[in-house]
Design brief:
homodimer, Arc Repressor Mutant, subunit A, Four Helix Bundle (Hemerythrin (Met), subunit A), 2 domains, 10 helices, DNA-binding
Chain lengths: 220, 220
DNA sequence: ATTATATGATTTGGATACAATTTTGTCAAG
DNA sequence: CTTGACAAAATTGTATCCAAATCATATAAT
């Protein structure tokens, strides 16, 4: 997915969308509409979401693989959900993956990928000046995704990409804090500069700081 | 799962088992029986594995979540499989997760969990003396699993547990090298001692070495 | 009163049937 | 010989049907 697509599709990462049942159920678990411990009866879901049992069962298997529900044979599916502890765990894990990803990406990034990163960073500067928060959310995702790709490690890429969904639903950053966009821009600049210098240690340090600051920016 | 169960179920981690379709297909992809790029037609799988389309579709969704196949809407499922690069990636990733896990586990392990780890290590010593490789494979899995649990981080636990499956199919360790069991025992002893001393740095170092040596023990 | 048991209702697991989409093959036009 | 249109076949997506397992309730035994 190119940076242009990220900008143009207009999906700011905050609306439902939910193109399929799996995504809808995932959303409903992550937002707490379906509560932990609750039993998900297939027929109930059929009625609630107006689909037949076949797609329901497929979605339940997917959610099970993701760890959002537990499927007990012949008994049914039970919501596991995300506890506050899980969210904390997720942030902690994600931080270390992101740092690892930067380290590997700086060592392995291609010329072409670096140009894409550079272009994306310039978009960041532009939309920070224009103070366009929705655009920035998309560009931010693109920036990180480029790094994931540049690790050339399929499993790490897949893992970090999958976390984007969760990040959306955990209490969001305080976008409207003074200097939010400017602060974020400078953190990304540090990361970008490390890539430019092909300095993995500097990159790891910059990403570590970015992750710490991200957490501190969370609404309490 | 207790250490006793690990010992008694007799599953040495090298036979098919494959209790369900998903596991069977997973195995067939990881062993290369189903090749990368190959199209998986639902009806073909039905005939091959003697099941109807409903469980087939469930399995395909699970495999997709795992990243072993790609599901293109209205087109079908295509095997992605594990390239040599993916296996290398997996080892590299797993190493850093394991080190991270030890760090966290040493800080968070409960008295009860530590006792379990201690008991497991004593089983290791015993079966090393008896030179029982099959038992050792199971105990080894148990030892690592206890560490995963002791992180008290559900996502990291889930992630590392899921890798156990892949490890089984990537070219196996050279179990019959001289001193294999003795070497492995000493590496685990270092890890265990770090837990006993509640020394996270020593644990991380010991696990790093264990991971390096594991890789070097691979058959070429 | 509590526990056991039996029976009917509900629910899951799996197979089949039908609809929508894609692929394949044929044949004619350029 | 290639290209395009179109129909037939194959394949995916969804709905429904049947069997097996589980759950709930009522009744009987201790």
């Amino acid at each position: 997915m190119s940076i242009i697509q990220y900008l143009e599709d207009g999906k700011t990462g905050s609306q439902p969308l939910s193109t399929n049942l799996y995504t809808e159920l995932q959303e409903d678990i992550l937002t707490g509409k379906l509560k932990a411990g609750q039993k998900l009866t297939e027929q109930k879901i059929c009625n609630e979401y107006n689909v037949s049992r076949t797609p329901v069962r497929e979605a339940l298997r997917q959610l099970e693989m993701e760890g959002l529900i537990e499927n007990i044979p012949n008994r049914g599916a039970f919501v596991i959900g995300f506890s506050d502890q899980d969210i904390a765990d997720m942030y902690e894990l994600r931080s270390s993956y992101e740092v690892l990803a930067v380290r590997w990406a700086i060592d392995r990034i291609t010329e072409e990928e670096f140009n894409e990163l550079e272009e994306t960073f310039e978009f960041m500067e532009f939309y920070t000046m224009k103070n366009d928060i929705n655009k920035m959310l998309n560009i931010n995702m693109a920036f990180h995704q480029i790094i994931y790709n540049a690790t050339h490690n399929r499993m790490l890429n897949q893992l970090l990409s999958s976390y984007q969904v969760y990040l959306k639903y955990c209490n969001p950053s305080n976008y409207y804090a003074p200097n939010y966009l400017a602060d974020v821009l400078e953190e990304h600049r540090a990361i970008y500069e490390a890539f430019k210098a092909r300095d993995a240690e500097a990159g790891a340090l910059a990403m570590t700081r970015h992750m710490e600051n991200s957490r501190n920016r969370k609404r309490k």
